[in-house]
Amino acid sequence: xxxxxxxxxxxxxxxxxxxxxxxxxxxxxxxxxxxxxxxxxxxxxxxxxxxxxxxxxxxxxxxxxxxxxxxxxxxxxxxxxxxxxxxxxxxxxxxxxxxxxxxxxxxxxxxxxxxxxxxxxxxxxxxxxxxxxxxxxxxxxxxxxxxxxxxxxxxxxxxxxxxxxxxxxxxxxxxxxxxxxxxxxxxxxxxxxxxxxxxxxxxxxxxxxxxxxxxxxxxxxxxxxxxxxxxxxxxxxxxxxxxxxxxxxxxxxxxxxxxxxxxxxxxxxxxxxxxxxxxxxxxxxxxxxxxxxxxxxxxxxxxxxxxxxxxxxxxxxxxxxxxxxxxxxxx
Length: 331
Ligand SMILES: NC(=O)c1ccc[n+]([C@@H]2O[C@H](COP(=O)([O-])OP(=O)(O)OC[C@H]3O[C@@H](n4cnc5c(N)ncnc54)[C@H](OP(=O)(O)O)[C@@H]3O)[C@@H](O)[C@H]2O)c1
Known about the structure:
By secondary structure, the chain is an alpha/beta fold. Helices cover about 45% and strands about 15% of the residues. It is built from 13 helices and 12 strands. β1, α1 and β2 (about 25-30) form a beta-alpha-beta unit. α5 runs parallel beside α6 (about 150-170), α9 packs across α13 (about 320-330) and α10 (about 265-280) packs antiparallel against α11 (about 290-300). The longest helix has 21 residues, at about 95-115. It is globular. The two termini are about 35 Å apart. The site of NADP nicotinamide-adenine-dinucleotide phosphate (NAP) has 31 residues, from α1, α5 and β7.
């Protein structure tokens, strides 16, 4: 029996669909709130795969609540851990650490206790190291430099990976994937969906940095192939392309027939923007542009996904294809 965590999120819902489309018969998934099952249902509906949704065994559990999680592990042999908390709001630091590090530690400990055959952990490029110049590619081997600035999210994903590597020392077989920004349908106002939404509202600004992008369909396909392979205790960068932020925004604007971003925001403009956002949040507005986002939007990195391409003989979909597919499904 396969267990999927984060099954009401972008990656987990597409993974469930992929597993069932591949003919997996015994698939169970955890959820916290019944209302969120609609998100997963919506993804199946987008693919005209509603009957497959009924094949999923749903178990109510929270990765921070051991008794419920222990129940969810009954009869399980393989685990895909996609659950995480994603936020760049400084107020969320504690929740990020708790959900992503402690939650992953709970998953690892139960995998060991239940003698799970293999765990697939969804990490992020945020948990990879950095190079000093974008002409030097970042790979799975690039070292993490604790002296450099990292967002709370990056620190929590790095800490989560450490828990998974600790599991390997205790005998657990794992594969880790480190995707770039993931684009997929069904999550319009969340994650990358927020970016599409902004462009659809004629967002006028761009910055000088780069964004590593990948299609959700490719992420889940690589995860499944890695779980079916004999590969263990390795991690894989999953990135289809490293685009300049301007190019990315312009491609989306062209698909949506919107005005392309035309004003470049530099360091000064960005620092004013995140400070203004902080001020507005003191007046009760939800944070939408933080220092961490400002820093990331100026960063220029080149992620090299050739390890995944070569190991799996895999060709990532072109951004023009998946950006069009995702943008066109915006409601
Ligand atoms: N999206 C991206 O661009 C991207 C890029 C790189 C890496 N990643 C990584 O990919 C993974 C999946 O991301 P995603 O985009 O699918 O995230 P998402 O859409 O925000 O979904 C997060 C999922 O985790 C669940 N979750 C959160 N806290 C939980 C808890 N305490 N107990 C049980 N479930 C919990 C959520 O459940 P509820 O529905 O109940 O909230 C939801 O199903 C994460 O590890 C993320 O860090 C994402």
